[in-house]
Amino acid sequence: MNPRLLQTFYVFGGIIILPFVPFLYWQGRRVRKRVGKLPDAAGETVGQFGEHAEIINLLAIGESTVAGVGASNHGDALGGQLARFLSAETGKSVRWHVLGESGITARETLQRLAPHLPETRMDVVVVALGGNDTFKVSSPNRWHNDMTRLISYIKTKYLNATILLANTPRVIDFPVLPKSLKFVLWRVSRLHHENAKNLELATENVFYFDEAKSVGDEFFSDGVHPSAQGYATWAEAMIKFLMKKTG
Q: What pLDDT shows up at residue 24?
């Protein structure tokens, strides 16, 4: 879908829900209070899965899912699980690195995390963003521009890396959200989803995981973030998708 049309949908949607904003804001505060704040995953942010001679370097960068919220350690969170399934699919060892911060948007990732990209050559970079841009109701224009700049920065740093964009959040599945918030935030997330598909089409060696399926309550640790099993399910699906796209 044309980015300009996505922005038009966003503006008209904002006009329609404007009278309900105070109520939605109140609901959002109640949800945040109920969920609280889980800690980031503990342990090292660098690790290796597999003992094969050939090594793939993998970087996961992004928001709370990369920080591992909902898992006890990074091996059980997104970075470690991606390495586990990539190793199984390729028959190679995978050395993984995670660079994540809870609550961060695409623009803040470019400002605060991108300058700290590892100097090690990366073969695969997984970008997991969109949750906070959805919850903060970032416009499609802002999301598209920020992600374009971030992808360009990563591609300049790692010239030959394959970039996988994780799916924007399926807030429709979040059990902790009331129906009214789901209604609004799901539509914002879908606008970012369409823009991510545009980014894939416009950029070489960038793939967007657009095959995310509905998940049940067991996927989550707190109604928002994945549990260790949720991370495993998600990571396996993304790696299988990547192998299908690049194999």
A: 56
The string over 44-58, giving b where at least 16 C-beta atoms fall within 10 Å of a residue's C-beta and e elsewhere, is ebebebbeeeeebbb
CB contact at 8 A, 144 and 3: yes
Q: Please give the Cα distance from 120 to 59 (Å, whole number).
A: 10
Helix (H) or strand (E) holding 154: helix 140-157
Rg of the Cα atoms in the chain = 18
Give phi and psi for 76, each to the nearest 5.
-95, -5
Per-residue pLDDT, 35: 64
Note the CATH number of domain 3-37+45-246.
3.40.50.1110
> Quick count: other Cβ atoms within 10 Å of Cβ 229?
16
The predicted structure's pLDDT at residue 29:
67
Instruction: Calculate the alpha carbon distances from 68 to 8, 54, 92 in Å.
Output: 35, 27, 24
CB 100 within 8 A of CB 62: yes
H/E run at residue 124:
strand 124-128
pTM: 0.91
pLDDT in tens, 183-195: 889 999 999 999 9
CA distances from 53 to 49, 80, 96, 122 (A): 12, 19, 15, 17
**Of the candidates 71, 8, 20, 19, the residue with the CA atom closest to the CA atom of residue 45:** 71
Closest-CA residue to 236 (of 221, 215, 222): 215
**Residue stretches of the chain with pLDDT short of 70:** 12, 15-36
Query: Taking the domains of the chain in order of start, what are their residue ranges?
Result: 3-37+45-246
